[in-house]
Amino acid sequence: MGNPWRCRLQIIPIHFPSLPFFPTFTSLDKDLLALIEATIAYLDVLTQSCISESEKLHQDLQKVEQLEEKITREVDSLRADIQRMETELVVYKDLDRLKDEAEAKKKV
């Protein structure tokens, strides 16, 4: 049967005489194809750039989450230390009682 486009190329000028001559149209097709190929190449580069940026941002997010966990653990530890120190402060605040206890231990 042959190339189906060849048949259309022969029919179109007969039905649509106002269309440009096909060799000119074919050169426009080549230019359009070159533009499309360049656009695809650019989009491939852009896609890879976006993927790289996404991976970098994901790694940064993981680092921030790890830092957040470390800070949370440190804050919890500091709160426990503060609570322990407040308890010890009550004990050490009563110096008279501490002196009496120390004297009682020396006597024993």
Short description:
This protein is mainly α and 108 residues long. It has one domain (18-107). It has helices spanning 4-15, 22-93, 95-107.
Q: Sheet bearing the most strands, described?
A: none
Give the N-terminus to C-terminus distance in angstroms.
119 Å
Shape: rod-shaped
List SSEs in N-to-C order. HHH
Question: How many discrete structural domains?
Answer: 1
Kindly provide the radius of gyration, computed on alpha-carbon positions and rounded to a whole number of angstroms.
Answer: 41 Å
Give helix % range.
over 70%
Q: How many helical stretches? A: 3
State the low-pLDDT regions, or none. Answer: 4-13
- Mean residue pLDDT: 82
How much of the polypeptide forms β-strand, as a percent range?
under 5%
The chain-level structural class is mainly alpha
Question: How many individual β-strands?
Answer: 0
Describe this structure in words.
- By secondary structure, the chain is an all-alpha fold.
- The chain has one domain.
- Helix content is 90%, strand content 0%.
- The chain is built from three helices and no strands.
- It is rod-shaped, with a radius of gyration of 41 Å.
- The chain starts with a helix and ends with a helix.
Question: Which SSEs are present, and which pair or pack?
Answer:
Blueprint: H1 4-15, H2 22-93, H3 95-107
Could you name the key traits of this structure?
mainly alpha, rod-shaped, 3 helices
